[in-house]
Amino acid sequence: MPPKRTPVKKVPDSVECEAQLGALVHNRGLAQRNVARILTILKQAELDRSELSPAQVKVYQRSVETEKAEFIRMHQEIVAQSPADKRDEQDDPYLQFMHLYEEVSVLLESWNEKLTAPPTQQQPCVTNQQPIIVQSQSFGAPLPTFDGHYEAWPRFKAMFQDLMQRSSDSDAVKLYHLENSLKGDATGVIDLQTLQDNNYQRAWDILEERFGNKRLILESHILGLLNLKQMARRSSKKLRRLVDECTRHVENLIKLGQPLAGMSELRGDCTHWRIG
Fold first, then answer.
1. Residue 128 — φ and ψ, nearest 5°?
2. Highest taxon of the source (predicted)?
3. Where does residue 104 rank: exposed (0-12), middle (13-18), buried (19+ CB within 10 A)?
4. Burial 120-141, CB ≥16 within 10 A → b, else e
5. Which of 14, 77, 121, 253 is a good FRET partner for 233, with 20 to 30 A between their CA atoms?
6. CA gap 102, 68 in Å, rounded
7. pLDDT tens digits, residue range 34-82?
8. pLDDT single digits (tens) 200-219
9. At what angle do helices 13-48 and 54-81 cross, to 10 degrees?
């Protein structure tokens, strides 16, 4: 006769659902508190008559939109899991959040308009004070962008820093240009505190620590060579593109001090090479 088994106590479905609902309500409230925090920062800046940088405003806008999407997602799940006779109770939290979101959005748009408005030229008046001169910085070339690919980091860094060294802009403006040049996987790498402090040097330290790893850069170029696709049919255009891609990786490896041996002349598929 088989031994008796002690039955496993299952958590009632109602208890589990209640726990899930409580977690959703908590996360929804967290999203609302974060938007309220940004509203407090904006109002305090107006009271203190302090200036926010364009980078700060951009980060705040991005954060508010993210929290709005999270709030709506959580709210929809809460409504779906709530009993039918209690769903109306969720209307007030939703309307309160939308009021908060609209208030923050209006303030952020006001800051955007103030920061992006062209400087007004006024006729100088005869006073004892020296006239204030506003100069618009022109770089003479479009600013480079960086999408988070390691192999592109050295070129981006050299080009961007060269342009900034010839600029008379403040560190706050340089930081704005730097943060605006980050795309793709590099977006949002610079933390909010660094942007709020207008700490241009710290921003570079963060980016260098993340993307300036020489080993990872070398690996990205080596993988680029290993992943070159074989030509399925003869094409002068595709051959030129293949050779250019291969040459780019090889030249960057040489610049990074990676010894290469066994280089031969170009063949129909690519350059034959061996890492020493």
1. -80, -15
2. Eukaryota
3. buried
4. eeeeeeeeeeeeeeeeeeeeee
5. 253
6. 10
7. 889 998 888 888 877 778 888 888 888 898 899 999 899 988 888 888 8
8. 999 999 988 888 766 666 56
9. 160
